[in-house]
Amino acid sequence: MEAVLSFHCRRFCATFPPMKRLFIVRHGKAQPQGGGSDFDRPLSAQGEADAHALGQWTAEAREPGAPLCVSPALRTSSTAQCLVDVWEEPSSHIQFEEQAYLASDRAWLGWINAWPDAHDNGWIVGHNPGLSELVERLTDQPIWLPTCGLAEITLHVDAWAEAFAGTGRLRGLFTPKSAMKP
Hints:
Distance between the termini: 48 Å
CATH architecture: 3-Layer(aba) Sandwich
Oligomer: single chain
CATH topology: Rossmann fold
């Protein structure tokens, strides 16, 4: 019996290779810049509502304690705060990456590669064009994330350090408009 189970396990594992799930979130819609800096722009009322809707839509997919890497800009930190509020997680789960404001896809990938492998999913909240370019780098599919858009990517890797160009598959795309569909 043990040999049969071992055979089935090898066959199953070959069919479904180990994977990580990456959730890439663009910040919610921000208020116009006005006289302040772009970095300090707050979410608009619509951006806040969309971020709460995103949190509800993704609550079941969230692995408690999984990496949540966030740009320190006000609109991204507010989006992340909306998510953890809905997920009923402490704000301390938000990991601010000081260099993530307008970071490139390569910079984001470097931070992802450094994540511990204890969790099989991870989240980032940041800005375009870097996030849309990251989706394209990982999946070879060009997309443009709208505000409060989320791309879910399956990475066919054992470890976060193994994620690189072409190792992912776009599994789903959430937009605020898609959340309103019946």
